[in-house]
Write a structure and sequence with these properties.
heterodimer, A: 134 residues, alpha+beta, disordered C terminus, B: 271 residues, globular
Amino acid sequence: MRDKLLGVLLAVAGLLVVSVPLLAHHSAATFDTTKEITLKGTVTGWAWTNPHTFLKFDAKDDTGTVRNWAGESANPIAMTQRGWSRTSFKAGDEITVTLQPARNGEPVGLLLKVVLPNGQTLVTTPPGVPQPAR
Amino acid sequence: MPKRIIDSIVTLMAVLTFSAVTLAQNQKWNSPGLAAGGGQGRPSAAGPAPRRNLSGIWDAAGAGVSGPGHVGAPFTPWGEQMAKSYKPGNGPRMVTLADIEDPLSTRGDPAGFPRLVLFELRPFQIVQTPNQMLMLYMFEKRWRIIWTDGRDLPKDPDPRWYGYSVGKWEDDYTFVVQTVGMDERTWLDNAGNPHSADLRVEERYRRVANNTLELTVTINDPKAYTKPWLGRDRLPLRLMPPDTDLMEMIPSATEAAEYKRIIATPSKPNK
């Protein structure tokens, strides 16, 4: 009985650290991973696709003009494990997005966090696990 | 048999049947098979390895993804020439996002074998039939047939994206697969390591416990590498609950083109 319980505990512990890395087929070098910017904006699109999901939204940034941003994130399997879904967003949703921007200044970035209209926060890192080194 | 015992058996069977039906109805359609993270999966039983049995759904978790690729044996001159001609998204010869030219992630070509087990090795299911071992992969939703009827490998097979495989039990717990005839257009992994048509791949699946397999993959390609090397070295694979949904993870050409248009090309570094 004790061995069985230990086996179950070890299996559960093992499963808790199965955080699958977000970026696989390419590195994050194109993005400035030392920088995080936060933008308030409106959803224009949400693609639940492989190997990347991506969020499109209009937002005003420090250039002063509204630009249409594209935020890249991981494949649907990894995102499902982090609580995102195909129906997480619809066009018109007012959101707050935190991302790591492209080095070239274009409105493109790696999604880190999105706060939904209902106040719920979605993150791209599993809760309790440190952000994977990129 | 006394009536009360029959009554008890009937009641027990009714309860078990009802429980099974109720559990199936309540099962999440896309159960990831994890005990944590919201799935209804349960950790699989520990215990001793069954003999000559690889059946089940197996998962390498994060260690199966291998984004940066693998470091193999030194290249031959031919191997080096091929490696330099590729434009991978990761590894020592990686290019920027906008310049990636990866047959899999840019053009939607099949990953091929052995890239299917050296990159994005996600959950996969093994099914044993009397004359085959079938492997059904979540990534790309591909399947492989490994012949176990004792046949020899073909001498001059037509190239196939996924090669041609035969396998046999080396002992009661170790299943060994040989594969030849792999199409030269595929990369070995995500770092753009090349291979020739002469490549032979050996996989060893060792069942070390009921809920654990270890996978070792040997790359043997004298045209491209100066000696054989291990693409996987006893990679642990965990047995998943039998109701795990293998989902669908297909890098389609259409989605690759959209990604290039929306993210990759706009992110190109300024000159």
